[in-house]
UniProtKB/TrEMBL annotation:
Organism listed in the record: Teichococcus deserti
Lineage: Bacteria, Pseudomonadati, Pseudomonadota, Alphaproteobacteria, Acetobacterales
An example molecular function term from Gene Ontology annotations: oxidoreductase activity, acting on the CH-OH group of donors, NAD or NADP as acceptor
Protein name: Oxidoreductase
Annotated Ketoreductase domain residues: 7-181
UniProt keyword list: Oxidoreductase
């Protein structure tokens, strides 16, 4: 069943990792997908790799001017956006005593300011009844040493999902959050066996998530199958935060 047939989707931060897995799933389900990334070679490689109708656009997700240009290109080609994924983000550890102003500013600039201002640019081109997924983290409700700032940025997105759902209710636009636990991306593959073991230990299902499993959750929330789900958080964590 092609659940996104005829839909136009934009994945901000879709050139690698979980974002690319979401692009692949949306394209497989029939959507025309636009993906963004900062590195031209990576964007081109991602758009070429995916089977389906996929267009790669080079843009810095934290810069409103870049996103405005992306929106203009999508609008010129199709006149609308049906589904939006705000996935771009970053993580850097720092204890409270090590958290410099630059550390705090950079994480909030990319992880919070970026999605907020990007959505402001995009929402006018979204159809009434459209769907938005923001990429959160189960860290948004956990006290993880060294990751206080990162966790706070993800908690901010969780809060925005509630507010935007209320603000956009007259247009029927649904805003939800997908919050993964440790996920076996290429970035995670570069970690040591000891780090991987420590991350897996508290997961009841005994392994990390696969990117395609996170993508399946995003697809569900973007599709009509989730037509009565709004302002919610869907954790894809193998039970790590649930039990």
């Amino acid at each position: 069943m092609a659940r996104m047939m005829g839909k136009v989707a934009l994945v901000v931060g879709g050139a690698s990792g979980i974002g690319l897995a979401i692009v692949e799933r949306l394209a497989a389900e029939g959507a025309t997908v636009f993906l963004t990334g900062r590195q031209a070679e990576q964007v081109e490689a991602a758009a070429t790799k995916v089977v389906g109708t996929v267009h790669g656009l080079v843009a810095d997700a934290s810069e409103p001017r870049d996103i405005a240009q992306v929106v203009a290109e999508v609008r010129e080609a199709h006149g609308r956006i049906d589904a939006l994924v705000l996935n771009a983000g970053m993580s850097q550890p720092a204890l409270l005593t090590e958290a410099t102003p630059e550390h705090v500013d950079e994480l909030f600039h990319v992880n919070v300011r970026g999605p907020v201002l990007a959505f402001r640019e995009i929402v006018g081109t979204m159809i009434d009844g459209g769907s938005v997924v923001m990429m959160g983290s189960i860290a948004d409700a956990a006290g993880i040493p060294q990751y206080g700032t990162y966790s706070a940025t993800k908690a901010a997105l969780r809060s925005y999902a509630r507010t935007w759902t209320a603000e956009l209710a007259p247009r029927g636009i649904r805003v939800n959050v997908v919050s993964p636990g440790p996920t076996d991306t290429a970035m995670m593959a570069a970690t040591t066996d000891e780090v991987r073991a420590a991350l897996v230990a508290p997961i009841p299902l005994g392994r990390m998530a696969r990117p395609e499993e996170v993508a399946a959750a995003a697809l569900f929330l973007l599709s009509e199958e989730a037509s009565f789900i709004a302002g919610a958080e869907l954790c894809v964590d193998g039970g790590m935060r649930q039990v």
